[in-house]
Amino acid sequence: MASIRKLHRQLIKKERSAVEITQEALDRIAQLEPQLKSFLYVTADRALEQARQVDAKISRGEEIGLLAGIPIAIKDNMCTEGIRTTCGSKILENFIPPYESTVTQKLAAAGAVMVGKTNMDEFAMGSSTENSAYQVTANPWDLQRVPGGSSGGSAAAVAAGEAVVSLGSDTGGSIRQPASFCGVVGFKPTYGLVSRYGLVAYASSLDQIGPFGRSVEDVAILLQAIAGHDPKDATSLNLPIPDYVSGLLPSLRARSGIKIGVIKETFGEGLDPIVEKTVTKAISVLQESGAEIQVVSCPRFRYGLPTYYVIAPSEASANLARYDGVKYGFRYPDADNLIEMYQKTRAQGFGAEVKRRIMMGTYVLSAGYYDAYYLKAQKVRTLIKEDFDRAFSQVEILVCPTAPSTAFKAGEKTADPLSMYLSDLMTIPVNLAGLPGISVPCGFDDQGLPIGMQLIGKPLGESRLLEVANTYEKATDWHNYKPQGI
Ligand code: GLN
Known about the structure:
This protein is an alpha/beta fold. Helices cover 38% and strands 13% of the residues.
């Protein structure tokens, strides 16, 4: 599908109607879904109704915003009033939220047209979308491969042109890693910038909602619409939101000598050589565009993964205690007593990965282990944050690969959780420190699979980050490639 700006121009010039644009997305969904499976459900009637309202506004001569009439897909862990929200889990298979998440409510108010809810790893736990209780999403570039995860459905939908943009959530990399695997732009904002009200909680101190798009500008437009203070989220930052969109300058030369730091520890061992070569080349493009490149060290970066796998499961074990068969969703129907009902509901309602994490989290939080694991992990989290602070005293933006490899084959890592966890080696530290990060397409491997470069900003440094990402995009052609054969 075309860019937001192009579609907006067509709408206001009355060259196309919002209903026609929505129908294009719905037709594409109908054509591709049998193979791709990015959506858990398509909300066609509601989408067409929203589109008609936008058309009515245009015909009344009213002004419309950039997102009005733009087809958008939403990860199925954001509550949508009256529309099933399963979080990719059997335990929420019949959950119809009685309220709307702040982000989807803001998008609806902006006139964006929600075409459906996308597939995801159950409770956002995973890196391949294979942990969904419902279906396995294919990577549009190679249907045998995974789209990444946990927001794999949202990434695949944008890459395949089933929606113009989409929303995902990122706790340890779940926007940036699938963006990298699917050849699209994915953005994780500073913790607290986007309201989490109505986002089904996985690990609350790490979760952030963010946009996917085919260009940095599309992502900036979507971020603009969802960012901002929300009294319904106690961790929401109460700060003015800058204009991300008009701040996008085409050249870094305009800002002479912006310093970008290459994170030394993310290169070398464990990194696919073609990813290394491609990202190194991309960094030289940044240099040619006017950035000053220097190597920086984040020595504690490598403790990110073990730290995350203590903190995230701990928070998850507490957050997921609410699924007990009483309050929401699935309930085991034939229990003889309350305890059996709790046990069988959770045994049958949760998948293997979710159970693994609830067990890990319960263990590390238990009396006697709390100090050794949870408290220690919180201390290491601070050390990782200090590494970033030190790096940011030398440079303004950090750069590294988004993921150590390109998209792997479905089934390749499902038997080995540890190798799956390694997919997020480079994205997790960014969540632990609460920083903004973006993945931009920067090339392909020898099998034609997309590669992503991750740029990391200072806290609330989204404007600068988007500006650098946009400069890179304008200097290259990678974002213009589309998956063939689907
Ligand atoms: N893949 C990581 C995990 O499995 C990150 C998930 C996420 O960001 N939601 O937890």
